[in-house]
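Weekly sync, protein design subgroup
Attendees: M.S., D.O., the rotation student, P.L. (late)

Item 1: inverse folding check
M.S. brought a backbone from last month's batch and wanted to see whether the design step gives back something sensible before we order anything. D.O. pointed out we never logged the input encoding, so this time it goes straight into the notes. Structure tokens as presented (363 positions):
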């Protein structure tokens, strides 16, 4: 969301020189520390950038956002239009200088590194940037590079920490602020905060919450990073306790009802947003003829008092839920789903549209 006019003026006023009130990449730094932000196309990265821009406009701010690094524009709307990343679009909406939004294909590219050095970057902040940073990049900012990582490191290092944590059904997670080193998410931890995990929260909501919390931790810790005390207090990670959180794949999105309902419910929460979860069921018409139907499972819960009704593979409806029998006498209650080519609907809407047809699960 674009800031108010006074806020926009405060943002632009922190850049000295340049014909448009902002510095070019080759002009000298101001007395404020030069911070470079690096973020991915994800909205959560844009939210961190927004927090930094807000903080940088405060009268007592010790830093300015000197540049933004994000992924190059990509095609959206089925490939018809080339669009900037969420981070770049947020910056442009704020009135951030376009020539200071850098979109390298690789951060190890010598042309990019030359432009990066010319900015006199003193600290880099990454939030879901998504690319491994080479040593020749990490050696440039004197205060280092720090990363907001949505897990309690060394747990869930990797591309999908929130999703894999939810898939595992964790009751507690958190966010860590750590210095970046060449090894994956293995740098010393400056600060972290723990949070309890609700049984029904989905990955997009938890991601948003953790990055918002991480933004607050980052801004609180910036003075210690700039005065050097953060490096002294940062704690090395115990690599022996590290777990990995590999990137999700669309092939993983299928649900198999020969697993317990709790496992499936956690997967639905973890894969919400992308790639989602899919299942195949059978629709049995009045003549007993089966037709296989592929559906997307949107919202679920674990049945607390399941009693089998009908055959072992029969899908029933109880109240507002579609109840699918699973392993170990458990059952998954589907509250929202999506049929091919249709909008998301409730289980009650599906029931009303069956017109006497029955449903069966497929393993």
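Designed sequence read out in the meeting:
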């Amino acid at each position: 969301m674009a800031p108010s006019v006074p806020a926009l003026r405060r943002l632009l006023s922190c850049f000295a020189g340049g014909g448009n009130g902002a510095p070019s990449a080759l002009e000298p730094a101001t007395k404020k520390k030069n911070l470079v932000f690096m973020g991915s196309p994800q909205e959560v990265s844009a939210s961190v950038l927004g927090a930094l821009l807000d903080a940088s406009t405060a009268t007592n701010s010790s830093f300015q956002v000197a540049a933004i690094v994000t992924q190059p524009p990509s095609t959206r709307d089925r490939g018809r239009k080339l669009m900037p990343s969420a981070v770049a679009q947020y910056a442009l909406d704020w009135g951030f200088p376009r020539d200071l939004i850098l979109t390298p294909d690789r951060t190890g590219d010598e042309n990019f590194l030359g432009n990066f050095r010319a900015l006199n970057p003193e600290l880099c902040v990454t939030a879901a940037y998504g690319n491994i940073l080479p040593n020749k990049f990490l050696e440039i900012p004197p205060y280092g590079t720090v990363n907001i990582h949505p897990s309690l490191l060394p747990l869930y290092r990797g591309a999908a920490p929130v999703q894999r944590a939810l898939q595992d059904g964790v009751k507690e997670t958190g966010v860590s602020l750590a210095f970046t080193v060449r090894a994956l998410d293995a740098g010393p931890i400056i600060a972290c905060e723990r949070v309890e995990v609700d049984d029904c929260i989905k990955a997009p909501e938890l991601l948003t919450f953790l990055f918002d919390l991480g933004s607050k931790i980052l801004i609180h810790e910036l003075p210690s990073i700039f005065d050097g005390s953060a490096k002294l207090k940062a704690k090395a990670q115990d690599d022996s306790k590290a777990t990995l959180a590999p990137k999700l794949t669309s092939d993983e999105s299928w649900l198999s009802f020969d697993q317990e309902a709790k496992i499936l419910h956690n997967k639905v929460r973890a894969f919400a947003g992308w790639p989602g979860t899919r299942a195949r069921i059978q629709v049995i018409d009045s003549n007993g003829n089966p037709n296989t139907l592929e559906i997307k499972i949107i919202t679920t819960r674990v049945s607390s008092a399941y009693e089998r009704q009908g055959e072992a593979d029969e899908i029933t409806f109880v109240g507002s839920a579609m109840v699918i029998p699973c392993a170990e006498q458990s059952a998954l209650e589907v509250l929202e789903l999506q049929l091919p080519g249709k909008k998301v609907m409730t289980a009650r809407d599906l029931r009303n549209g069956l017109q006497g047809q029955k449903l069966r699960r497929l393993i």
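Discussion: The chain has a mean pLDDT of 90. Residues 203-226 form the longest helix (24 residues).
Action: P.L. to compare against the previous round before Friday.
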